[in-house]
Amino acid sequence: MKINNLLSRLDDEAFQDILGKEVVGTLNYFNPKYLYSENLHNIITNTFSNNELLLNDVARTHLIMRLRESEIVSLAQFLGITPETDLYKQLADLSYKGELQKKLFSFFEEDLVEQVVSEFISTSEIVPGYPLYSYQSDVLKRLKSFLASEQNRALLHMPTGSGKTRTTVSYICRFMVDHPGENVVWFANTKELLDQAFDEFNKAWAFLGDRPINAFKFWDKSNVDLKTVKGSLVVAGLDKTYQALMRDMNTISTFASTCLLVIMDEAHMAIAPTYQLLIDNMTANNAALIGLSATPGRTWNDPDEDKRLAAFFFRQKAKLEIPGYENPVDYLTENGYLAKVTNTKLFHKTGITLSPEDIKYLSEHYVLSLKVLKAVSEDRLRNLTIISRMEQLVKVHQRIILFAITKSHAIVLNSLLTAMGIDSRVVTSDTDPVERTKIIQRFKESRTANPTSMVLCNFGILTTGFDAPETSCAVIARPTDSLVLYSQMVGRAIRGIKSGGNATAEIVTVIDEDLPGFKEVAEAFINWEDVWQ
């Protein structure tokens, strides 16, 4: 029995009863002709599905009452109902639930569409496209409070690998949303740092920005006309911008007048005479200044220089602090943001005695003289000790960075490793840029894509801004009296699991027993706290 056949048996009164008084009254108000049977039939078929008609008590009753006697008997038999005196009323009054409902639908050749009652969910988790860790958000709040004051300078102090760049870029994006038409400039001194800042901003703005925006590269061969830049981020090399300042102070002054925010990567460089002149020019119109550093000092043993750096930033330091931890590095390590580090020492006696001139040079420049470094780099027994250790390390680590003493030293070590059949490459500041990029990209390949152990022998680069998270070992083969530099080298290999790195890392430091230098980065993060008080 088809529902459509039964509908044709209904009269106007039945149609109006199914539609209800409100619908009928409204139709009659607009035009009584809408209440004709044919029109009412069309309204019902366009309004209700056959399922809905059978589930509706009023409609179902009218349909049952329009069955012929033979049909009502057939329905009773199909339903398994024992007939009583008034079979029509008996079937119309039945409660059609469960199996009885299914049989009713089957009799009328309809498939019962189960009504799915969806659970009402009052909350939903929205995942941000450019999230910050909670500790990054906390340090960002401290930074904002400093920059909101009249002394609008602050140093962002976070350990290597904890996300200084990401935290700062998040602040920049929000700043630029609030200050359309104004420029922001980010200064750094190496291609790696500049690339890192540029790429990170491009990624962040896609999620946090509110309009199309330009980001300019101003280093190497870039020829951006700074006087025409508006409402943009300029990522600028320190040397290139300083040279532009010396050539044409008017251009830099014009550019500075449009900048409300200046970022100084590796903040300890800000008080070098040339760079301080540049920063002073860029902030002459009261632009805010953010310095970035994992090691907020200039030296290890010259408090006066360190105090000068602190004073430059008004002793305002937005430091990463974790409740319950004296040193946040412990928290970052325990929670997988940084790798658990094993410090290995490789001892060697050079037999070199520092002359009074060498000691004077070291006290004035905080590094050993080129003459001493050259002599150390040419110590064949020392190099043999390093190579022997490297032969063991490549069996354990797949990505190793070796920090050499000089360019020649890097080439020598690379040659020895290559001769031994170890996959090794050399990169220095003199390496052809195209070739350098290829080498670094191959080193950055995941261990899945490139499972071969690979060593990068380098000099003068890759200490900052170099992001190869799967690097699990750094070999410090150069003596250094700079805690800042030493910390930067170590930082290349300590990314933790949550930062795309490793659970563990190894730092191998060559200890020249006759020479000054660091044995390990002990408490580097809190080394300069006193000068910032």
Output the keywords.
elongated, six-stranded parallel beta sheet, 23 helices, 14% strand, alpha/beta, 13 strands, Rossmann fold, 3 domains, seven-stranded parallel beta sheet, 533 residues
Account of the protein in words:
This protein has about 525 residues and is α/β, with parallel strands linked by helices. It has three domains: about 5-105, no CATH class; about 135-320, Rossmann fold; about 335-530, P-loop containing nucleotide triphosphate hydrolases (Rossmann fold). The protein is about 45% helix and about 15% strand. It contains 23 helices and 13 strands. It has helices at about 5, 10-20, 20-30, 35-45, 50-55, 55-65, 70-80, 85-90, 100-105, 135-145, 165-180, 190-210, 240-245, 250-255, 275-280, 305-310, 330-335, 355-365, 370-375, 380-395, 405-420, 435-445, 485-490, and strands spanning about 155, 185-190, 215-220, 235, 260-265, 290-295, 315-320, 340-350, 400-405, 425-430, 455-460, 475, 505-510. The strands form two sheets. It has a seven-stranded parallel sheet with strand order 3-4-2-5-6-1-7. Strands 8-13-12-9-11-10 form a six-stranded parallel sheet, sandwiched between helices. It is elongated and about 125 Å long.
